[in-house]
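Need a sequence for this fold. Nothing fancy.
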């Protein structure tokens, strides 16, 4: 489902390479919102577990009804930074991992070329309260979500 892919997690945007940067994961803490074209919302709530792990929950919000659709994790594994998503209605409830393959001072990219969709997830830091997330298969099969820390 495309909607499930919408919950590709908000990630910390880092300086340097994925392998050698310290990960200031605390920048993700809190609840992030994105309003969909149909008037519903998606949200992600992130909490630090340690300096090396963030846990998140992706929800769909329709009116006052909130439904958990995804469990998220951002973690260090040795020198790698891994984003992991467990979408409850896909992949028999098993997690899919995406490895950090590119980073700059305002853009972070994770990829998994073996996954059907998405194959990549990119996070672009706009400012401290706004992040754009692009999820896709290739340059012609992708979409961008606009997240804010405030539900407006």
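Here you go.
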């Amino acid at each position: 489902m495309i909607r499930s892919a919408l919950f590709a997690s908000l990630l910390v945007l880092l300086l340097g390479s994925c392998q050698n940067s310290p990960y200031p994961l605390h920048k993700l803490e809190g609840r992030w919102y994105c309003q969909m074209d149909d008037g519903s919302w998606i949200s992600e709530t992130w909490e630090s577990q340690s300096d090396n792990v963030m846990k998140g929950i992706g929800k769909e919000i329709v009116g006052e009804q909130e439904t958990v659709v995804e469990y998220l994790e951002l973690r260090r594994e040795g020198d790698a930074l891994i984003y992991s998503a467990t979408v409850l209605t896909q992949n028999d409830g098993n997690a899919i991992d995406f490895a950090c393959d590119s980073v700059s001072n305002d853009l972070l990219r994770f990829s998994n070329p073996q996954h059907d969709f998405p194959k990549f997830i990119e996070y672009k830091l706009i400012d401290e309260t706004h992040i754009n997330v692009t999820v896709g298969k290739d340059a012609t099969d992708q979409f961008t979500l606009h997240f804010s820390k405030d539900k407006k």
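For context: The beta strands are 30-35, 41-50, 53-62, 65-77, 80-87, 96-103, 107-111, 120-127, 130-138, 141-148.
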